[in-house]
Each structure stands twice: as C-alpha cells, then as structure tokens.
Amino acid sequence: MKTPASHALRMALIMVLLSVALFPIYWMVVTSLTSSANLFADRPQMLPDPSQAFNYAETFSKTGVLVWLKNSAIVAIGTMVLSILLAILPAYALSRFRFHGKGVLGFILFATQMLPEAMLVVPLYAIFAKLLLLDTLGGLILANTAFTVPVITWILKGAIDGVPLEIEEAARIDGCSRLDIVLGIVVPVVAPTLAAAAVIAFFHGWNEYVFAQTLILSQELRTASVGLASFVGELSTPIHTVMAIGVMYTLPAVAFYLMVQRYVVAGMTAGSVKG
Amino acid sequence: MASITLNHVAKHFGPKVAIADIDLKIEEGEFLVLLGPSGCGKSTLLRMLAGLETVTSGEIHVGGKRVDQLPPSARDMAFVFQSYALYPHMTVRRNIAFPLIMRQFKWWFHIPVIGGLAKRRIERSPEVAELVEKTAKTLSLTEMLDRYPRTLSGGQRQRVALGRAMVRKPEVFLMDEPLSNLDAKLRSAMRAEITRLHGRVGGTFVYVTHDQVEAMTMGTRIALMRDGVIQQFGTPREIYTSPANTYVARFIGTPPMNLIEAHIEGDALRIGEALLPLPARLLPAARSVSGNTLLLGIRPGALTIGAPGEAGGLSGTVSLVEHVGAESVIAVGLAQARTAHEEEGEVAGEIMVTASGYSDLARGKPVTVGLNLSEAVLFSAENSRRLGDDAAHTA
Questions:
Q1: How far apart are CA A16 and CA B261, in angstroms?
Q2: What is the rounded distance in angstroms from the CA atom of residue B154 to the CA atom of residue B317?
Q3: A272 contacts in chain B (CB < 8 Å)
Q4: Among A4, A72, B217, B245, which residue carries the largest CB count within 10 Å?
Q5: Are residues A101 and A36 in the same domain?
Q6: Of A169, A188, A269, the CB nearest to B52
C-alpha cells in the first residue's frame, strides 16, 4: 500500500536522481554566465549572472558557432533520414522472410556494433580519400549512417515482429503489394519505434566527434562537436565561451527530442487484433 | 455470387499432411461451415481458398475460373479474421474504405502528404463515401466512423471487420472463427447478425468454426473435418441424424451420441441381457454387417429413464446428474453393456441420457434405460462407418 511516507521517500529519491542528471546542465548555464574573474574564484558562483549575457553575443560574433551548428544539423538530419530509409526494408526482411543465412546476416549486422569507431577511422579515411568523400558533409553522413543502420535495423525488426501477421494478410486481401504493406501498414504501425530510432540516429549524427574530426578538414565544414573541442587549448581554455557554445549545442538537440517525444508513445496496435 | 470447386486439393507442410486430397463443391450462395477440432486443417483450407497459403497439389475454381495460382487480391474474396485484423492507425471509416481506396491506388500515394491527400480524396468521393456510410448503417457503426479501433469493444471491432469485407461486394466471404473472441452473449447476437447478413447481401460464405452450435445454426451445409480429411459433407440435419461415422456422431450434439456395443440375434440386438427388436428401417443396415458385432448409436434424447427391472431396457446406476435449465443430463453406468467412446475422460460403460425438466434422480440410484431405436443408427464395429445404404456422404 502506498503510504504518505513511502510516497515522500519516492519523491525524494526522484529529486536526487533528477538533480544528479540536471546539475551538469545547470552548471554549464551558470558558467556561461560567469565573468572571467569569477571563473576560478575560491567560492564558485552558484547562480547565473545575467549581466554576463554578452558572453553569448561575443561567442556569436567571434566564433563560427552558427556555421558549426548548421553543419551539425545537416549531418544529424542526413544521418537520421538516410539511416531510417536504409533500415526499414532490411528490418522488414529480417522480421518476415525466411532465407538462407538470415541468422548469419543478423549476427554480422550486430557485429558491426562491436567495432569501435577509432579502429575504423584509418581504413575509412583511405576509402573516403579514394571516393572523393573526404572533407564533405555527405561523406560524414555516410560514415555515421554506417554505424546507425545496423542498430536501427535491429530495433525496427523487433517492432515489426510485434505487428500481427493478420494485419498484413488482411492488407494482401484488400489489394496491397508487399511494398504497399511495408509503407502503408507496417511503417505507420511501428511509428513510435521509428520515432525512437530517429532520435538515436539524430543524436549519433549530432554528437559524433571522431569521424567529424578526421574526415572533415576545412574550417567551414566543421561540426559543432569539433568546433567546441577546438577551444580546448594546451595553455588556456575560455571556459565561459566553451560553456556558452555548449548551451547552444545542447538546445537544438533538446528541441528536437521534445518535438519527436510525443510520437514515441506505446499502444499503437491496441485494438487492431483481439484483446 | 459464385460456386467454389476444390479438385484434389492437398497441402503438405514438409512431411506433415495438413490437407489430404479434398474434393468439394460449394454451391452459389451457400453458407458452408468448415467444422472440426483444433488442428484438423479447416483454417488451412480456408487460407488456401483465400490465397494466403499455397496449394501443394490440386485446383481451386471460383465461378468456373481457376484461382489457385492467383494472388489473394485477384480472387474477389473477402476474409474476416479471428483476430479482426483491423488497421490500428486508421479510423473505422478508413478501415472500411481501405479496400476501395486500394482499387484506385497509384504508386505515388506512398509520397507523404500528397499520398495522404489523394487517399482522403478517394475516401470522400461520393461513390466511396456513400458505400461506406451505407455499410456502416447496416452494421450500426455510423456513430463510430471517426473513431480508432482501439476505442471500440470486441463486438464493434468485429462489425468493422465485417464492414471491410462487405464493402467490396465480393463473390465469396471467408470467415475464420470470427466469433471466437467474443463473450457468449455477444457471440449469439453476432451469429444471428452474420446469418442475416448472408441473407441480405448474398454471396457464397465459407465459415470456419470449432463450435458445433455455430455450425448447426448458421450453415446451409457443413463439412466436418478431422486430420485434414472431410469426414462428412451434408446439411446440418443430415449430419445430426445420419452421421457418416462414429467420429461425426460423437462430434455433433451435446451431450454426444452414445455408442453401445451390440450383437445381432436374428432381427434383434443383444446388449447384455436385453434383447431389443430392431425397427424395419434398421434391418437392412444390421444385415449388411460382416460379423455379428456392431455399434448402436443413439442420441441421449432418444433414451428414457425407467424404474429398475423394467423390461426391454438396459439396467444401470446413475453416476452423475447435471441440471441444465430446461433439461437434465444424466450419466448412467451400464451394468452389462460396453460403450465405444474414445474421447479422453470418458468412462467406459457410461451413457448419457437427457430428460426434460429438473430430475430428482440421485447418484447411485439403480435405473433402467429405455431405448427408442426408431431414432438410432448403426455403425460398423470394424471401421466405425455407418451401416446402411445412405452412408454415401462420407468423404
């Protein structure tokens, strides 16, 4: 039974966990609004100082943050769209068809996730150089997609497994081709999972650093992750500038998540079949 | 409406034979019920008719046209699934209109937004909208047209599934246990609704069920199946009164037909000490038996309970009394007779008797069971087939 004491304890625990999760973000905002003089003070400033808002204006004018964010958005959205387009059909095939080597194929897809990015960066660099994909955002999207497609394929396969076969059979009788079934019936039914997969692919593209650092050479094609890291110097690091960029880097991702979040709802198939 | 002909249709799943060489002719406008226990192949046969399963061998003709090589959508059949199989992301209106939208479907309907607008345009076109409204009205779904399947009750969902089938005006309606997920009361209401639907919209209906009440009340003819083989194909009355074999005899009827071992002595049957003269109707059948042992098949309703020691009956002891509203079902353990019931849980030598009203009989009471042989049938003890000339319906 739920007593007031257990409820209070639960709430307290939730508050503690939330604080642990949110404090770094709060600290990032506070630091971005702290004067240079107070950055290394003995007693750190715990509240943001609105008078230091000019930090943001300076960051905008003195750094290429807007271009970096634009590049990051291109890479993240490109990775997301391409990953989903490439993952839907294999996920459907893995879920619904029986063919020789299905198990092996599934394992190989999984095995790609075991290889760290850093290990692949050198061969990928050589291949990209030959294909003239070095220093292009398209190339970077392709590299990121190669990493997200297997995991998204597996996630979508799991969701498609849960779509009752009768719905597809009903669609076949109603005159749907296999492609009509995938695009018109299966994809809408697994839309919540698709939204979750989109979030994964987007954030992979948005946050990715190793490939962006290696495969992009020119300043104007840098993504925000690389741009942010470029401020970390050997002798000095303008922490409040880095944090201001950090805030700007985080906000679009949060906005994207909030936008997609409402689609990530369960129970879409409820009512289609018995129950 | 179209007739359906199955010529030597078989279906094998690897070494397992699901359907073994079935020949069947379903007439135009008929309501055929495929009846049988789980795993007998009835659903497989229905799915083969629909094109959802391939045919291992044989041919299927609908309206004289061979269809077994055609895709499901080209067979002009509608299928109602046991699990409704509604499209969860579409409203009731779109679910019902979907087959009509698919008739005008173009590849570019897959393009987001544009395709959605095109589909909406078809859905709102006068001919489609009118048909959907009319179908919804027939099934009392008008109020629910803009709701999603998840907000509907089981009965309403099943009606939407029926609507989706009806709207296409197909030649043939195929139904795979459509009522088995509904509660008893709703099932009875939907049973009547489907029968009315058959009368109203016409079309040839093939209906799969394991429920003998559905089969007996809805079907114009029944094909009773077991292990991929049709045991008997006939009207509900034929199947009830003249079962082709002991399996059919025991499958149809609640409680099932009693099968009692008997021996022929002249023109009479010997069961234990009782000697029962055979009616003239059964004499040819009795004389056709090769040995002198046969199985007497008699429905519980053709048996009466009398006082112990009464002449012309079988003596026994009451072992169970069940009161089922208007009648009582009495199980009697026979003293000197053997039964041939194969089902699990059956007690050897025990027969069932139904008596109208509330029976005051108590367990352990000795009784005499009287037999009205004019309603009995005789089966061969060797191959379980019904004896007599009119047993030709056996598959």
A1: 80
A2: 46
A3: 84-88, 149-150
A4: A72
A5: no
A6: A169
A203 and A108, same domain (yes or no)? yes
Return the amino acid letter for A174.
D
Please tell me the total count of domains within chain B. 2
Whether B391 is covered by a domain: the verdict is no
Contact A271 B71 (CB under 8 A): no
By C-alpha distance, which of A76, A77, A59, A70 is closest to A220? A70
- Is residue A271 assigned to a domain? no
Residues of the domain holding B340: 255-380
pLDDT tens column, A16-56: 999 999 999 999 999 888 887 777 777 777 888 888 888 88
Residue B320 has phi, psi (to 5 degrees) of -165, 140
Q: Is residue B369 a contact partner of residue B271, using CB atoms and an 8 Å limit?
A: no
Chain A residues inside the 8 Å CB shell of B72: 169, 172-173
ipTM of the complex: 0.84
Distances (CA, A) of B333 to A121, B316, B368: 84, 5, 11
Chain B residues in contact with A274 by the CB 8 A cut-off are: 82-84, 154, 181
Q: Which of B89, B96, B160, B208 to mutate to test the interface with A (most CBs of A within 10 A)?
A: B89
**Residue A269 falls inside a structural domain:** no
Q: Quick: pLDDT tens for A56-72.
A: 888 888 888 889 999 99
Whether residue A274 is predicted with pLDDT greater than 70 in this model: the reply is no
CATH number, domain with residue B142:
3.40.50.300
Contact B86 A268 (CB under 8 A): no
On whether both A91 and A194 belong to a single domain, the answer is: yes
Q: Min CA distance, B81 vs chain A (Å)?
A: 7
Q: Which of B48, B91, B98, B152 is the best residue to mutate to test the A interface, defined by the most A CB atoms within 10 Å of its own CB? A: B98
Total domains, chain A: 2
Residues A142 and A73 in one domain: yes
Say yes or no: A208 and A232 in one domain: yes
Percent of chain A scoring above 70 in pLDDT: 94
Q: Residue B354 phi/psi, 5° resolution? A: -110, 135
Note whether A195 and A156 are same-domain residues.
yes
Asked whether residue A134 is assigned to any structural domain, the reply reads yes
Interface of A with B (CB under 8 A): 164, 166-167, 169-176, 179-180, 183-185, 188-189, 191, 267-274
Q: Are residues B342 and B228 in the same domain?
A: no
Q: State the residue range of the domain holding A226.
A: 63-261
Q: CA-CA-CA-CA torsion for B379, B384, B387, B389, nearest 10 degrees?
A: 140
Is there a contact between B89 and A268 if contact means CB atoms under 8 Å apart?
Answer: yes
What is the identity of the amino acid at B5?
T
CB contact under 8 A, B85 and A184: no
Instruction: Collect the ranges in chain B with pLDDT lower than 70.
Output: 344-347, 389-395
Q: Are residues B66 and B10 in the same domain?
A: yes
Among residues B213, B241, B269, which one ends one of the domains? B241
CA distances to A183, A271, B7 from B111, rounded to whole Å, are 10, 27, 44
- Chain B residues whose CB is inside 8 A of the A167 CB are 85-88
Q: Cβ of B87 and A170 within 8 Å?
A: yes
pTM of the model: 0.82
